[in-house]
Amino acid sequence: MTRLRAAALAIMTLGAVLVHVYAAAADFTIIQKNRAFSVRQIVIKVGDRVTFVNDDSVNHNVFSETKGSEFDILQRPGRSDTVRFPQPGTVEVQCAIHPVMRLVMQVRQ
Ligand SMILES: [Cu+2]
C-alpha cells in the first residue's frame, strides 16, 4: 500500500467514525424536583433517550398520551426511567399526581 493510499484510507476511516458519532442517539436527563420538571421545553431528535429522574421526596408520575409516544410511569423518590422517542412531533409530558407539572418536547427528524 502506498503512503498516499494509507493516508486516504485513514481519512475515510476517520470520516466514518465521525459520521457514526454524529448519528448516534443523544441522552438527556430531566429531573423532577420541588414538584416541577427541570425544563419546561426541550428539543430532541428521533431515537434520543430521555431519562426522567425523581429527585423529590414525593411520588411523581410521567406520562404522555401523544399518539405513538405513549408512556405512563409512576416514579417513587429516587427512581429514574429512560424513554426513547421513536417518531417526530410534539410530545406533551405531564405528571398525573401534580397536573401543574408540564413539559413540551419537540422531537425532530
Ligand atoms: Cu409530580
Name some characteristics of this structure.
about 110 residues; 1 helix; 3-stranded mixed beta sheet; binds copper (II) ion; alpha/beta; Immunoglobulin-like; 4-stranded mixed beta sheet
Helices and strands in order:
Blueprint: H1 3-23, E1 27-33, E2 36-37, E3 41-45, E4 49-54, E5 60-64, E6 71-75, E7 80-84, E8 89-94, E9 102-108
Parallel strand pairs: 1-4, 3-9
Antiparallel strand pairs: 1-2, 4-7, 5-6, 8-9
The structure holds copper (II) ion.
Copper (II) ion binds next to loops.
Q: Explain this structure to me?
A:
The radius of gyration is 19 Å and the shape is elongated. The longest helix is centred in the N-terminal third of the chain and has 21 residues, at 3-23. It is built from one helix and nine strands. Strand 5 and strand 6 form a beta hairpin. The protein starts with a helix and ends with a strand. It has one domain (26-108): Cupredoxins -  blue copper proteins (Immunoglobulin-like). It has a four-stranded mixed β-sheet with strand order 2-1-4-7, with no helix packed on it. The chain has one helix at residues 3-23; strands at residues 27-33, 36-37, 41-45, 49-54, 60-64, 71-75, 80-84, 89-94, 102-108. The protein is of the alpha/beta class. The structure holds copper (II) ion. Residues 35, 60, 95, 97-98, 101 line the site of copper (II) ion (CU).
